[in-house]
């Protein structure tokens, strides 16, 4: 499988919201309320014209395989957002390529740290983050998407 990463194009944020909502509702049993969170993230991203934010779609000749965004959390800290990889592409390095793109972008744009928020149940994602130098910073219990979860903050210095 030859995977390319390309910059976001018009319509891609809609695909990200749809694909990620479907994925987490089907695989994690989350409620549809997760879609509202993704819509807000997409709106915030689209509303900012900021050269220190970007996003990528991973795709092959069959279509999109995954996506990620990076946004400015503060002057020194980038935030990795909405990483996901389609089931058909898992275990093939797609997630690693997407996270590597965020790290490279953040480094080029002068950030000194990257943070991300995730949930405790997303164990495969945790392994990917660890492999790229991220560490768990904090964890807070919460009721979200019809479940009891733990919101986690992960970070790495650049």
What does this entry look like structurally?
The protein has 158 residues and is of the alpha+beta class. It is 35% helix and 37% strand. The protein is built from four helices and seven strands. It has a seven-stranded mixed sheet, with helices on both faces. Strand 6 and strand 7 form a beta hairpin. The model has no long low-confidence stretch (mean pLDDT 96).
Number of helices: 4
What ranges have pLDDT less than 50 throughout 5 or more consecutive residues?
none
Order of helices and strands: EHHEEEHEHEE
Rounded mean pLDDT is 96
Strand content: 35-45%
Structural class: alpha+beta
Estimated radius of gyration: 15 Å
How far apart are the termini?
30 Å
Helix content, binned percent: 25-40%
| Strand line-up of the largest beta sheet | 1-2-3-4-5-7-6
Largest sheet: 7 strands, mixed
Q: In total, how many beta strands? A: 7
Taken from the alpha-carbon principal axes, the silhouette is globular
Q: Which terms summarize this structure?
A:
single chain; 158 residues; alpha+beta; 7-stranded mixed β-sheet; 4 helices; 7 strands; 37% strand
Can you summarize this structure?
With 158 residues, this protein is of the alpha+beta class.
SSE diagram, text form:
Layout: E1 4-7, H1 12-28, H2 33-47, E2 54-60, E3 63-72, E4 77-85, H3 94-108, E5 113-119, H4 123-131, E6 135-144, E7 147-157
Parallel strand pairs: 4-5
Antiparallel strand pairs: 1-2, 2-3, 3-4, 5-7, 6-7
Helix pairs in contact: 1-2
């Amino acid at each position: 499988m030859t995977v390319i990463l390309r910059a976001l194009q018009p319509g891609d944020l809609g695909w990200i919201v749809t694909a990620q909502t479907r994925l987490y509702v089907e695989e994690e049993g989350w409620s549809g309320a997760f879609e509202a969170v993704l819509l807000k993230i997409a709106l915030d991203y689209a509303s900012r014209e900021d050269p220190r934010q970007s996003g990528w779609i991973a795709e092959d000749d069959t279509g999109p395989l995954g996506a990620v965004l990076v946004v400015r959390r503060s002057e020194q800290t980038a935030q990795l957002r909405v990483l996901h990889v389609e089931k058909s592409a898992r275990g093939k390095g797609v997630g690693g390529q997407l996270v590597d793109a965020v790290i490279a972008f953040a480094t080029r744009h002068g950030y000194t740290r990257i943070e991300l928020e995730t949930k405790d149940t997303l164990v495969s994602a945790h392994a990917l983050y660890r492999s790229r130098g991220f560490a768990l910073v904090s964890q807070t219990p919460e009721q979200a998407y019809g479940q009891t979860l733990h919101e986690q903050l992960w970070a790495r210095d650049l």
